[in-house]
Amino acid sequence: MKLSALNQIKGKVVDVKKGVTTAHVRIDLGHGIVVTSSITNEAVDLLNLSPGDEVTTLINESNIIIGK
Amino acid sequence: MKLSALNQIKGKVVDVKKGVTTAHVRIDLGHGIVVTSSITNEAVDLLNLSPGDEVTTLINESNIIIGK
Amino acid sequence: MKLSALNQIKGKVVDVKKGVTTAHVRIDLGHGIVVTSSITNEAVDLLNLSPGDEVTTLINESNIIIGK
Amino acid sequence: MKLSALNQIKGKVVDVKKGVTTAHVRIDLGHGIVVTSSITNEAVDLLNLSPGDEVTTLINESNIIIGK
Amino acid sequence: MKLSALNQIKGKVVDVKKGVTTAHVRIDLGHGIVVTSSITNEAVDLLNLSPGDEVTTLINESNIIIGK
Amino acid sequence: MKLSALNQIKGKVVDVKKGVTTAHVRIDLGHGIVVTSSITNEAVDLLNLSPGDEVTTLINESNIIIGK
């Protein structure tokens, strides 16, 4: 399935921290770039996410702010 | 000023395309990763964005979707 | 690829209107429910979207506001 | 009050799960479509949300991703 | 209708600029604070927005970034 | 660093409530306007946020919904 969110960057899960409802997943995009994604615990379970997993990060164009 | 959007990735502007109100800015994050940001024309003018500019992309944690 | 945006609803494209940079795509989810998605023109081209296409709408949990 | 978020779909609350700060509310839109909304606990209290409530889900156009 | 987006600030429309699909609406919140909202042209028409209108701005909690 | 999110409003932190992963920060913008921002606990720690802090709230144009 192709997605309209064109920003798609591959990475590897380095850490998954579950709250009561919300989880934080840290993803190493390589080259020293590590990002954090805030998703639901259900999503973590559905994707069966754990450290070492190869994943793709998807970001909508309107959600990238630019600083200069 | 530090920002609560912790995902901050440096890159270089490769293209700026203005619509009537909305502009698309393509940014090379290096390592073959190019993203597109959709911002207002006013923001392009305020930041005086043009190809070659060193910029930082900022992404809120709740705006990164994970695919596996 | 499974996605962490758990809200996924199937529908059919009824209309695609391109601006200079941003396009509006109207999608019939059935049962009288029609939604509008605002995406980039590049995404319309990449997905080769046109009326009649079977698609899936994806919505992040933090992007659904509730009214009562 | 009319809202600029044009995507408005009626549904019924089926479940409310509160975390320490963030709550997940599952809403049945009918026809087998159930979505999850992630809102603050304060919002749950303000709207006095509980299973069985008739509600409206509101989604901004830029927050609907399309997959094909 | 009460909304789960708890951030609701009243203001007055000062300017409406329509693109081909996307419109920018500038809103004076008083006290020298003017914000810009990017909505669809359809929303402008539906709400029949024009300068001088009393409106309410609604912002989801996850969409407010903090700088310090 | 200038940011493409043009909506920037100064305020003072009045309350910080941490969940297991997500924190709610209430910010007084003056003139009786108090908003709530939902950010990660890591962001609270990085910015070292506590009541009384002078901060700036940043809101992307596409994240302001208008009601009339």
From TrEMBL, chains A, B, C, D, E, F:
InterPro entries in UniProt: Mo/tungstate-bd_C_term_dom, Mop_domain, Transp-assoc_OB_typ1
Domain Mop, chain residue ranges per copy: 2-68
Gene3D superfamilies for the chain: 2.40.50.100
Gene Ontology biological process: molybdate ion transport
Entry superkingdom: Bacteria
Keyword set includes Lipid metabolism: no
Keyword Cytoplasm attributed: no
Keyword list, A-Z: Molybdenum
Pfam families: TOBE (PF03459)
Record's protein name: TOBE domain protein
Native source organism of the sequence: Methylocella silvestris (strain DSM 15510 / CIP 108128 / LMG 27833 / NCIMB 13906 / BL2)
